[in-house]
Structures are given as C-alpha cells and as structure tokens.
Task: structure prediction
Amino acid sequence: MSIRNLDDLLAEGVSGRRVLVRADLNVPLDKETGSITDDGRIRAVLPTLTALRDAGAAVVVCSHLGRPKGAPDPKYSLAPVAARLGELLGADVAFATDTVGEAARKAVEGLGDGQVALLENLRFNPGETSKDEAERGAFADQLAAFAEAYVDDAFGAVHRKHASVYDVPARLPHFAGRLVLREVEVLARLRHEPDRPYVVVLGGSKVSDKLAVIEALLPTVDKLLIGGGMCFTFLRAQGHEVGKSLLEEEMVETCRELLARGEGRIVLPVDVVAATEFSADAAHDTVPVNAIPADRLGLDIGPRTVAEFAEAVGTARTVFWNGPMGVFELAPFAAGTRGVAEAITTVKGFTVVGGGDSAAAVRALGLDESSFGHISTGGGASLEYLEGKALPGIVALEQ
Result:
C-alpha cells in the first residue's frame, strides 16, 4: 500500500505543529440518558492520539456522530465523547461547540504542545456530506486551515466521500493513522491471501445489505455460514415456510441462484429459536427449519446450528465474521451469537470480527476481545473493501 503512515509523520517531527486527526467517534448513546454505551471506537484511536501527543503535536480531532441533517442537533453532540476521551487520555480535552466557527478557532488556537481539542460533530455542517464538490471543498478548506498535517484514523468512515475524509487530504500533507493502517493490512490479507480453510460467518437482517459481499466472497471461501435475519430468505429459497420471520420476498430467487452457485459451500441453519413476537418476554421454542410455525418468527439460530457452525469454524485457518446470528440484544435470543463467537475464539488461525453489530456483540456479551485476531471498527467499510470497491478515504491517502 503506497500510503505514508503515522511513523512517517513522526519521523518528520510534529513538535509545535498542529495535526488534524479524522477519528471515528461514532459511538452508541443511550436514548434516555445520552451516555455512551460502548466506547470501543474511542479506545481504538488512542494509540494514534497518544503517539502524536507524546511527540509534542497540538492535536485537533474531528468526527461525526449519527446522522444529523446538516445542522446542530443536541442529541448528536460530541460533548459526552469529549469527556470520555479526556478520561481515557488522562488529560483535559478542549471541546469546541461548533465545527469551524468561533468556538473551534479559539479551541484550536489555545492548544499547546501535546494538548488535544475535539471539534463538534462534522455533520452539523452541510458541507461535510454534500454531493456538491464546491460546498464540500469550502468546508474542507476551513478544516484544513486548522492544521499543518492530516491523519486519517477513521476506518469506519473511509467508504464515504465526505469533506473530512476525501477533500481535506488533498489540502494537507496526509498520513494513515495506526488504526487505518492495521485495518487495511488485515482486510488485504483476507481479500488476497487467506490461509485455508477460509470460513466466513455472515449474519444481520437483510440479504440485500450483504448481497455484494456474498457475491464477492463466494468464489474465494471454503464455507459461508449464514445466520441472522437474512437466513430466512435463503431458507425460503430452499422451499421452507418461515412464518412471520423477516423475509425479503424479492430476494428469494437471488438466494436460490446463490445456493446453486455455492456448490454446497453455503451452510444454512438447521434449527431456529421461534418466538410469538419480537420481545424478550415472548414465548419461544427451538424448532427445525422445516417446521417453523406460521404464527412465529425466528429470532436466533438454534443449538444444533450452533454446533454445526462451530464444527465448520473449528476446521478453519482463517475466519471472517460479520453480523450477529440473532437478536443478541434480547437475552433469550443471544445464545446463537454467543455460541458462534465463542467457537471463533478457539480457532488456531487468523480471526477477524467485521465491525458494526458484531464488534458490539463481542463487548455486550462480555467476550474477551483479545481472543480474536482483529476486531474491525468499520462494518460497512470492511464489507466494501472485501467487495473490491475503491474506498474514497483510502484513495485520498494514496494520492
């Protein structure tokens, strides 16, 4: 990969210089309290921030959070992130209450060597996500004016053609942070030279969301294990009735074609946990996939499926997992995700958790993160990289 990285920047010297770091601090917040429920993405950028601070840089951090509509929205403020970042760094983090306005300017100008400021949510400014290049460029000009160098450590956003990801690198000397570099190295290994057997575990809600990655992976994998809500469209393609389970009727024929092309490499559940409703209190039973009651919906894979998936994973030298096996947020339907995740932790080879809900599940279920070879911070970016797409943020760093 022909990208200059953080070590290259540190070798040039950053003491007394301002460095703009694009981080991915898009953490989940509790809807009632606004508190952070999973700080994994904040922790992921700490090595880059710490290296810059220790080298004497004045560090300006920017990020998005959620999907505000190009204007300030208190529920998407990065204020709680600034507080948590300060706790983790063990140092005060100056928080600017705007992105490129007066508050941002004062916060940046007030930085001393080794100090950190966090700008307010980038998506509060319409220029961040604008499809108009002039509008996006104007916002990028304002961001770039805050610094003398740019570091992208927001792998979860590199698949977006946004001002802070794509346009700012064209205006400053640019470098990949520790996290971005590691992510690309790991995913390149999966895409180009996985040790075999190579087993992929895919979950999540919809086949349509994962269709491109399934088509990209199918020629390269030894086994493709499919769970989550998306499995019911595949089961319907096999001729099974799925009751009230999630079903994409328009994708059934596509799934039938994929099963034919998969030549036995696509492995589907043999039993599921079927409930009367989408609720932790709902009555539920484990049933074979050919006997799902008409008035029930599948919310998890069953124990026989967990055992079969675990056996397949156990033979692997490389495993990529993206997407939960069921509604793990509800305790009665978490066993499938937990069982498969625990099986992956026993693999002797290289294991990758593909970000998003999978990474959240690892932490929510209390699993040891160090038991996995790599936990990605970018679900969508990971999938698009494996699909073979050019990611705008990576393209910008290569230029």
Q: What stands out?
A: The chain has a mean pLDDT of 95. The two ends are 11 Å apart (CA to CA). The CA atoms of residues 22 and 152 lie 5 Å apart.
